[in-house]
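> call design_seq(struct)
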């Protein structure tokens, strides 16, 4: 679709599987499996869905997915589909890596920034050689020194080479305006300094939820990931986003739902629910 000067495309950059219990926290399995059925290992299917924005001579990715630097053990643990990748998505769009000029990272967890670098010999270099990469300062600082609880989510080889190459820009935590028609909302419940992305013009608004609302099964307010560092903060952040989404008719883009790309929501007596599913695959 087109929003303002931006052509916006959804890229399905890969499919993985994660433990359903961890993805839904305190919610019992008989409830969450209605929307997110589990496999024999209790894993639910998940997408790594990205956005590609094109305007003038610019091409920007929002997040870079899992990447493909995984050994066989990890591919088995996460059920990584080897047939789908960011590289193949861009190929299908006729875009070379050196045409990407900006990469906006919501946060530095491995399933959001794994495609940011590629291997070169024994080291790693930026996957998009002509791009500037952007992430919140708070998230970078946390990713460099995470807690023991979330250390496994931050693979430093995905983002330290960007800083070493001088292409990673740290966005001030108070900065909301990124580009004309693109604003950032900092979200701290999942991890510190995550940034969700709002793209809007006078008619339409897309809100890229990142890990605030990973799948359509997470739309109900209490359905919060066990991975979230501050679940009560997540709850408050969902309320704030939903109130604006209902009032201004936003489309929420779901980064990890394997089938439902986006939803419009509505206020209900006991919270919020889905009014319409958008772009269902």
């Amino acid at each position: 679709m087109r929003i303002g000067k931006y052509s916006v495309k959804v890229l399905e950059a890969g499919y993985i599987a994660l433990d359903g219990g961890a993805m839904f926290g305190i919610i019992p399995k008989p409830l969450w499996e209605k929307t997110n059925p589990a496999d024999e290992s209790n894993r639910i299917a998940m997408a790594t869905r990205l956005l590609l924005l094109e305007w003038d001579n610019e091409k920007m990715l929002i997040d870079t997915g899992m990447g493909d630097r995984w050994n066989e053990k990890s591919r088995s643990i996460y059920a990584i589909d080897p047939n789908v990748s960011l590289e193949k998505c861009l190929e299908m769009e006729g875009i070379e890596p050196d045409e990407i000029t900006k990469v906006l990272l919501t946060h530095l967890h491995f399933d959001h920034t794994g495609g940011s670098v590629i291997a070169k010999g024994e080291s790693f270099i930026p996957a998009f050689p002509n791009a500037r990469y952007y992430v919140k300062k708070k998230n970078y600082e946390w990713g460099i020194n995470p807690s023991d609880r979330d250390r496994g989510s931050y693979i430093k080889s995905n983002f330290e080479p960007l800083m070493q190459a001088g292409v990673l820009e740290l966005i001030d935590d108070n900065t909301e305006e990124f580009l004309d028609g693109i604003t950032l909302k900092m979200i701290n419940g999942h991890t510190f300094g995550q940034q969700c992305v709002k793209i809007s013009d006078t008619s339409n608004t897309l809100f890229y939820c990142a890990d605030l609302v990973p799948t359509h099964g997470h739309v109900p307010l209490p359905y919060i990931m066990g991975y979230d560092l501050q679940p009560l903060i997540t709850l408050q952040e969902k309320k704030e986003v939903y109130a604006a989404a209902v009032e201004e008719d936003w489309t929420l883009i779901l980064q990890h739902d394997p089938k439902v790309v986006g939803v419009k929501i509505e206020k209900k007596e006991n919270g919020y629910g889905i009014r319409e599913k958008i772009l269902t695959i």
